[in-house]
Amino acid sequence: MDDEAETYKLWRIRKTVLQMCHDRGYLVSQDELDQTLDQFKAVFGDKPSENKPARSQLIVMVAHNDDPTDTMIVQFPDQPKIGVDRIKDYFKKMQEESIPHSILVVQTGLTPAARDLITELQNKSFSFQVFLESELLINITEHNLVPKHVILTPEEKQELLARYRLKESQLPRIQYGDPVARYFGLKRGQVNRVAIVTGADNGIGQGTAVAFAKADADVVITYRSDEKGAKETTKRVMKTCRKALVVVQIYVGDESQVKNLFDKILSEFKRLDILVNHAGKLKY
User: Fold this and answer.
1) Which residue, 63, 131, 207, 217, shows the most beta carbons closer than 10 Å to its own?
2) Whole-number CA gyration radius for the chain
3) Which fold has domain 3-138?
4) In this predicted structure, what is the pLDDT of residue 283?
5) Do 284 and 262 meet the contact criterion of CB atoms below 8 Å apart?
6) pLDDT value, residue 12
7) Which one-letter DSSP state was computed for residue 128?
8) Sequence ranges of the domains in the chain
């Protein structure tokens, strides 16, 4: 790969990393998030073949918005494949500098022994994630078929369970290896939501849709006849800054319409976590 293409690739990868840190709640300046390719070249160089930049120079160190002691380091090894010795060095640095979270962005992967060592060394005090460079060339959360995800705090999760009288085992699951789950650094037990509310054009249906939006859920609104009321619900939901919102006019007593609705939801959101039916009879 020539220097121009390699420089562009490194800029894209580091940009996605900065966005990922920001989306996890870590402090990243707007200047860093908006850094252009030319600005990247001015800071790091445009001759990767001459180690300008070397991957190891692209390191990112951030602290969490809510807790400055909750730090994370993102490192880019120069070696194409990482072995046991390098992993030991990274963990030693985390321990010495009290860095609880680390992300490693590798070119081709880890040796089997290095992967086993990561599994062995990880514990509640330290977390260690590995991404391939190819996984970070684009920000998966910016894809138009991926809904906005919001990760609930432990307190919000307990409130959700209490409000709907659910056990944790009844919550829908997102796979641990899911690309979006990995992007957000989700741990087992964390929750994010996409909700559909039928009959959301007025009354309790409208209130329910808005309540879910305020609780940081993406909301799908359906209604039968009150278009004006549905638009008002849409307006109120959008005031909560939800980005993924679909308004659908259907009669939920019609099985074919309901099937089309679910097909559309799965196409646009790729998933559905919560269904609240305020529309009388729902066929599905």
Assistant:
1) 217
2) 22
3) 3.40.1340
4) 45
5) yes
6) 96
7) E
8) 3-138, 154-277
The reported pLDDT for the residue numbered 172 is 47
Question: Phi/psi at 256 (nearest 5 deg)?
Answer: -65, -40
**Fold: same for 3-138 and 154-277:** no
Give the integer Cα–Cα distance in Å for 99 and 95. Answer: 7
Question: Which residue is it, tokens 């790969």?
Answer: 1
- Report the phi/psi class of residue 175: left, alpha or beta, with left for phi > 0 and alpha for psi in -120 to 50: beta
Taking only the tens place, the pLDDT of each residue in 147-165 is 455 555 667 666 756 765 6
For the chain, helix (H) and strand (E) counts, in that order, are 10, 10
SS3 content of the chain, % helix, strand, coil (to 5): 45, 15, 40
Among 6-10, 13-17, 19-23, 262-266, the minimum mean pLDDT is found in 262-266
* Per-residue pLDDT reduced to its tens digit, 68-92: 999 999 999 999 999 999 999 999 9
Task: Read off the pLDDT band of 23 (50, 70, 90).
Answer: confident
The residue ranking higher by pLDDT, 175 or 168, is 168
CA–CA separation, 280 and 156 (whole Å): 29
Longest dimension (CA), the chain: 68
Residue 280 buriedness (CB in 10 A; 0-12 / 13-18 / 19+): exposed
Between strands 218-223 and 71-75, the pairing is unpaired
Select 154-277's CATH number: 3.40.50.720, 3.40.50.360, 3.40.50.150, 3.40.30.10. 3.40.50.720
In whole angstroms, give the CA distance from residue 234 to residue 250: 16
